[in-house]
Design brief:
about 475 residues, alpha+beta, Immunoglobulin-like, Glutaredoxin, four-stranded mixed sheet, 18 helices
Length: about 475
């Protein structure tokens, strides 16, 4: 009996300790669930607004329902992406957000409920301020930036006042969030002013356009050192990025032979003193820029002098090592059994004995489509030469039919192939392709001539063909 009582006491002590440990363990996750009525896709994704490396796909069940537990390092801003619809989410540790909407009428049906939902509902309402009925955000941007100075500023001020009114009249927001969001709204206004000259030039097709002196007086000097704002405000980040971009463009206008990424890193070093901000800016630039740099080694060395974050630098080093392996004369990565529009399947090995000019493209890529006439002309000029023109589509499987249709509609020539896994195809990953269009030249032995070859509309392509004596 005594032994049984002693065992019972020990068990109670163990349970108590276990429960206390569970209670003391800090919650580092949030739950996101919901239902999408009339869903036409099988999955959604959750993307971190400040960390482009974070993208989580979540399957919808047959009723459009989903649920996922997200581990959080910090309280963060996300976008829930359904097809082309973006739902802004502000997620804190311990939150449980339930997102419901009808896919056929998102704006009028979306509602976010549950613990922590007030901020996300506010952000969705704010997102629609300044949009005309049924207007896409990009179309709204083009409409507003096409306005003349006075109308543009009036539109910005009106939008800012509506955002501030919504913020002041939304219940359930913490004072800390309100303070940060007030600054975020102000940064959006300043960022828009700073963007106006460049975007209005583009829309008006007037490269000589310059804002007036009175307009410039409304633009405040940008501080690059506010780390708290940098961590919270996407508009503060946009303000810094635009300021740096303007400096880079000024430099490139004086010498267009300079490498954009390298000049951008130099601008960061000259303008930014806060090391954490510098790390993030350099990393976000390097993920793509190291793959396009005129001299990847020069760019990589400058990056390591700029950023000191070990996690970021390890990732960039991995990318750089892949890029460094794509040198002239090295064996090209292979593609195997890609669907050929003409029938059957084709591998790079099947083309041995010929030069291969690869065009990596997709039906949704505007710059790719603009190159089609030039590509047709080059194909015609070198038709009788020892070269195969191969276009590889990285469209998603759902757009396979669109790919087939465009081949017919655009009367595409050459060899038309469909990659086996879109962006995640091994050939695409091995060539470290982060953006398209992208062109590659491979020699008859399957070795790299140029891993980032000139586009068809560039005279440099013909020069390259002449250099290899096609």
């Amino acid at each position: 009996m005594k032994k049984s009582l002693f065992a019972l006491i020990l068990a109670l002590v163990f349970v108590s300790c276990t429960e206390k440990k569970a209670i003391d363990t800090p919650i580092d996750y949030a739950v996101i669930s919901g239902t999408i009525s009339n869903a036409s896709v099988e999955e959604i994704s959750i993307n971190n607004l400040f960390d482009s490396d974070f993208s989580k796909k979540i399957k919808l069940d047959e009723n459009g329902m989903f649920r996922d537990t997200m581990k959080l390092a910090n309280n963060d801003s996300y976008n829930l992406r359904y097809s082309r619809t973006l739902v802004p989410l502000f997620v804190q540790k311990g939150d449980h957000l339930t997102v419901n909407f009808d896919a056929e009428k998102v704006d009028s049906t979306l509602y976010i409920s549950g613990k922590g939902s007030a901020v996300s509902n506010y952000l969705f309402k704010k997102k629609n301020i300044g949009l005309e009925k049924g207007e896409a955000p990009r179309n709204a941007m083009m409409r507003v930036y096409a306005l003349e100075e006075t109308s543009f500023i009036d539109t910005l001020v009106a939008k800012k006042m509506k955002q501030e009114y919504l913020l002041s009249n939304t219940d359930g927001l913490s004072e800390d969030f309100k303070k940060n969001e007030q600054a975020n709204i102000a940064y959006e206004y300043q960022s828009s002013l700073l963007d106006y000259n460049r975007i209005h030039r583009y829309i008006s097709k007037n490269p000589a356009f310059e804002v007036s002196e009175s307009f410039k007086k409304k633009m405040k000097t940008v501080s690059f050192e506010k780390e708290e704002d940098f961590n919270f405000s996407e508009n503060y980040r946009a303000l810094i990025s635009t300021s740096l971009m303007n400096r880079v463009q000024d430099t490139l206008e004086k010498d267009s032979t300079l490498d954009y990424g390298t000049v951008y890193l130099e601008a960061i070093n000259n303008a930014v003193k806060n090391q954490n901000i510098k790390n993030k800016l350099a990393y976000d630039n390097a993920k793509n820029a190291v793959t396009y740099a005129n001299d990847p080694k020069v760019y990589y060395d400058l990056y390591l002098q700029t950023a000191v974050d070990e996690t970021y630098n390890k990732k960039i080093t991995e990318i750089y090592n892949k890029v460094a392996a794509l040198v002239k004369g090295s064996a090209s990565p292979k593609f195997v059994d890609y669907e050929n529009n003409a029938g059957g399947k084709t591998s790079l090995a099947d083309l041995k004995g010929k030069y291969v000019y690869v065009d990596v493209w997709a039906t949704w890529c505007g710059p790719c489509i603009r190159e089609i006439p030039a590509l047709k002309q080059v194909e015609k000029e070198f038709h009788a030469k020892n070269i195969e023109f191969v276009s590889i589509s990285i469209d998603a499987e759902k757009d396979h039919g669109k790919w087939k249709e465009m081949i017919v509609d655009k009367e595409l020539g050459g060899m038309q192939l469909f990659a086996d896994n879109a962006w995640q195809s091994q050939f695409i990953e091995d060539y470290v392709i982060k953006g398209i269009h992208r062109f590659i030249l491979i020699d008859p032995d399957g070795n790299i001539v140029d891993a980032d070859a000139p586009r068809p509309s560039s005279k440099k392509l013909v020069d390259l063909f002449e250099e290899v004596e096609l």
